[in-house]
Structure prediction request, 598 residues.
Amino acid sequence: MINPSIKIELSTMPSQPGVYQFLNKENKIIYIGKAKNLKKRVTSYFRSSISSRKTKNLVKNISEIKHVVVNSESDALLLENSLIKKYQPKYNILLRDDKTYPWIVIKNEDFPRVLTTRKVEKDGSEYFGPFTNYKTVRTIMDIFSNLYNLRTCSYDLSKENIDNKKYKVCLEFHIGNCLGGCEGKQSEEDYLIYISNIRDFLKGKLSSSINYFKKEMNEASNKLNFEKAQKAKEKIELLNNYQSKSTVVDSKLKSVDVFSIISDNTHAYVNYLQVAYGRVIRFHNVEIKKKLDESDKELLLISIVNLREKFNSKNKTIITNIDFENVLDIKFIVPKAGDNRKILDLSLRNATQFKIEKLKQIQIVDPERHSLRILDQMKTDLRLNKNPVHIECFDNSNIQGSNPVASCVVFKNAKPSKKDYRLFNIKTVLGPDDYASMEEVVYRRYKRMTKEGDNLPNLIVIDGGKGQLSSSVKALKKLGLERKIAVLGIAKRLEEIFYPNDPIPLYLNKKSETLKVIQKMRNEAHRFAINFHRNKRSKKAMVSSFDEIPGVGEKTKILLLKKFKSFKNLTKISEEKLSEEVGKARAKKIKEFLKSKS
Prediction:
């Protein structure tokens, strides 16, 4: 039942772009959202058809709704982002990141220093970053120290102080790391060429530095200063080596951001690549826990706004795997082919790898969460009413109707529960009839479980197509269980999933975890049934052969079976060794019998 005051708010809400806030009884903001049409979006939360448990919990806690109208959807997005950061509502996605990332700063001073910092100040200096990996920062700073004679002192190198000879050169000058700007031995104009090249380098453009050292090398070579020319050549090689190790994409891609997202039922994984001058100069991955079954489009948009703000990106073009129109006044590209598609595929590959690594970590650190995630995915993929915590899978095995057997394997929390596996000898079916055999086994299994009060499974998987599935349903109907247990069949050829009374099969993604669990169950049931059938045939063959030997009774047959395992092994045993087990007389009869059979 909707609160009367909320009903009034909904009826008077404008159909314009804006931001809305949901407040609880304590007048605390619990959710903030944006909308192209406020009335349509906010009203959608109060539909009776909403199936999401999380959304229902949110709506149940709403006591008041506030909203603000803005000029465009882009303005709404930016305002939503800033309000979420300020209030951090319970039901919103929070892209928290406790790290303080490193920056490289060119100080706003005479003879500017180039330093690393974790604190951005409004002092007129130029900040480049942030960098997600401090190792990258150290590598870049090492390159700068090898390429350029930058000062490291904190002196105030104003023209007045230099002219007044306030400072003396230090050890850095004497070992060749600094050119002595403090005593006027290097002009600020020459020093600023270094800074200009460094600025271009940090923007991803290495050509300025390469051209500078090529010019220096040629000039030194013309003056026969081969030592200086060699040093310049080594610096060019250093730059080329760094450039080759950077991820090169397309030189036509001057400055673009690349975002991609993949997701499952509970989490989304976003990859961000920043490209400049044909190279990836920054990458970052984000894992987002879903709170209200948000769509990939919503989550990616939140990530784009946050990451561009975090990394101070001003790029006007974004390549992504989801299309956005008229948002943020930015050009969005969803490429289908060409170089743009290659860089998007690289981003998707990184997002996928990031997801795999996260899931492996969860599997080790929090196996319960890992199992729950798979069960949630199976519930969605297989259209079940609840998580299939307990699943049982059946398979038949026979050769032209001989020694028919069946197996039942049990998975709990998406893992094998081997102590619950069961084997069946087919009792009521004559000849090779898989359908009747499946009906018998399913009936016997659940008749006994019902009688003994055992917990029934949430899902039954039948190894076979429509025929085996129909036979299983027939058995469940006899027991009155057809509406209490979900049942499906899997056909081997195309891995088709069949449901009762549904002629159209379900095809799962070949890489989906749901299909992998079902395949693992099917293969396990097949292996278990085949092994049982093989052992039964072997025992029968061996016992029936011994029935023909005069003087060998039941006890002797069992003794030989336990000791030598198979008829083949028995043929290899000497008469002397055999006599140790059954006596000389019986051993002689057995060996004579074996010779007559060979």
Residues 513-546 form the longest helix (34 residues). The first strand starts at residue 18 and ends at 23. The chain has a mean pLDDT of 82.
